[in-house]
Predict the 3D structure of the following.
Amino acid sequence: MTGTVTHRPRTVFVLPGQGGLRPGPGAALYATAPVYRATLDEASAFVGKVCGRELTDWCVDADVTEDDLAATEVAQPLLVAHGVALARQLTAWGVRPDAVVGHSVGELAAACVGGTLSLREAVTFAAERGRLMGGSTAPGAMAAVLGAVEREVAALV
């Protein structure tokens, strides 16, 4: 099959939730891509140490294991920071999304990339969400709010 592209294809940035994170997700980019590095450093400065390490270290250090990254306290802010940093770097390289979507904690990264949340808001929210979830649920468990009406939720926020 051959053909000619007559129009620019649509591009969607899809930002994942927890589960697929592997060690060193941004090590090569951190070393070579200035926008990625600056964004990750900025996010790391907002949240400080997460489980005893800077967020940047969780992303680039060679001694980080998959088990380390399974901790939701680490994974959630790291996924948001990495996702936003990657999206910003791609944009700097000329790759512009027509849409941005996220799954689970990836929704926070998508909201940041889409301009609804600042990086500070997104990564701080993710860090707090990870901390609360890490301390309140057993591995493999889930927490949800059911049956709340809008005014009750608004009072909690």
User: Anything to note?
Assistant: The radius of gyration is 17 Å. The beta strands are 12-15, 49-50, 53-54, 99-102. Residues 12-156 form a domain with the Malonyl-Coenzyme A Acyl Carrier Protein; domain 2 fold (CATH 3.40.366.10).
